[in-house]
């Protein structure tokens, strides 16, 4: 019921159309018991950066945005496909915008999110304020997938709020107090939009907002890279949103709506939109609009950033369409998610020590047993920060098992091989410790590669003394499902590393070095479990002279997993990832320091 009980703001939410090494020898130091190690566990002395805003402040932002009528990412672009898409001025007002939809409960779409933005300039003139609304989808407990035009150029940390857990939009009373109708409001902590997003062409229209704390809403996954079935012409897809329900009214819907739209072929989409439709980057859906509300089913203004769902996965993100949504013959246009999984996945997996979008490094001094972290500056690492005494352990891995946005550590005690999970608790600003496995003393390799099985929950991998590789599927809370055997013969490798996606397909991979010849192999992840979890190995390098390796994720912040290699003199090299599954997997290396011989553990 649009505008129920109050004036509904005119949301025009649319766009114009438009290592440091493991030890002196890789094979031994990290994964063997050190003599005389103490049984007492280390205590982390570093507290991650936290972000907070009072509930009153977040609700103030929501209330302000509710009254706003601005357009996210508004821009102008000449139309190339007819006067029906213009406002008469010659500039296109084609908009990222559910007409013909039905009301949907939040239990049917628990992952739906409302993105509210309000920047009050503090003057008496409301014309200089910015207030708008976008949709989004929860893809992990702290991650919202949305459109780049809803994010680019805006400061979501200082002026945004995200509401989840309700199918109703907020309402405000005369005093400006908000009623969230059972929803939960959260603070946006970080934001990322595709680096190649164009506000002119509305191309690469994908973004991820990271929340300051996890939400209870059940996430939905993106479709996978290489998915073609979801985009076959005629495939039914569902769009969700709170946008306009009529071309003749600017009112948006107070209740969540959904509508079923058939996927259209690229040829059909380009036939209507011409060069404005970018094949491979965009997908359009819906039957040709009739020119009026009658007979038209379409996304519309206010639906921007919301998901287009096929078979339970996000196949598209609402991007743009024609003015008023019903121009005869028009279709709704979405960012094609299968083409952007490789770019968005690292942002969903981007947890690191200091909370930005670049992976940091954890290490331990071999003689003093002091642990340190070094935060990434993109192509270098900052001065180290002490974590105190880290005696008594022989393995430290960086991960985020509970998906709360704060990096965890998984450690192995030297004396008995017990495995422990250290996780930061923001409410108490302290570290909690939990035993996750006992007697992993004989495990040859242990890796925290991220999500191997394709469920967006970080997993662990270990190689037993016989050389069998086992996947321990994470359950998102520091516990694991029963292990699954994925391969054998891994005694042939003296290093096994992985943290994130090296090939740009949104699936976690592994890098191994052979004991004989020093050959580097890529084990490309498939997103599956069991024997099919990794493709046949690909030889990508020969690195016999390096004494240690480390993989901590995306160090440079470009969305591709990187690699670190240390030579015998202690120089550490950063090998930037290229996203290619070939011998060109890494770009030209860069030295990031010459004093890394002193460290025996890298996270």
Largest sheet: 8 strands, mixed
Structural class: mainly beta
Q: What is the overall silhouette?
A: globular
Average of pLDDT: 85
Distance between the first and last residues' Cα: 53 Å
Helix content: under 10%
| Number of extended strands | 39
Radius of gyration: 25 Å
List the helices and strands and how they pair.
Blueprint: H1 55-67, E1 77-78, E2 91-92, E3 102-103, E4 112-119, E5 130-140, E6 143-146, H2 156-159, E7 160-164, E8 171-172, E9 178-179, E10 184-186, E11 188-193, E12 207-211, E13 221-222, E14 236-241, E15 257-262, H3 266-273, E16 282-285, E17 307-310, E18 313-320, E19 332-336, H4 341-348, E20 361-365, E21 370-374, E22 385-389, E23 393-399, E24 408-413, E25 419-425, E26 430-437, E27 445-450, E28 459-463, E29 469-472, E30 484-487, E31 493-497, E32 510-514, E33 519-523, E34 538-542, E35 546-553, E36 562-567, E37 572-575, E38 590-593, E39 599-602
Parallel strand pairs: 13-18
Antiparallel strand pairs: 1-2, 3-15, 4-5, 4-7, 5-6, 6-12, 7-10, 8-9, 11-12, 14-15, 14-17, 16-19, 17-18, 18-19, 20-21, 20-39, 21-22, 23-24, 24-25, 25-26, 27-28, 28-29, 29-30, 31-32, 32-33, 33-34, 35-36, 36-37, 37-38
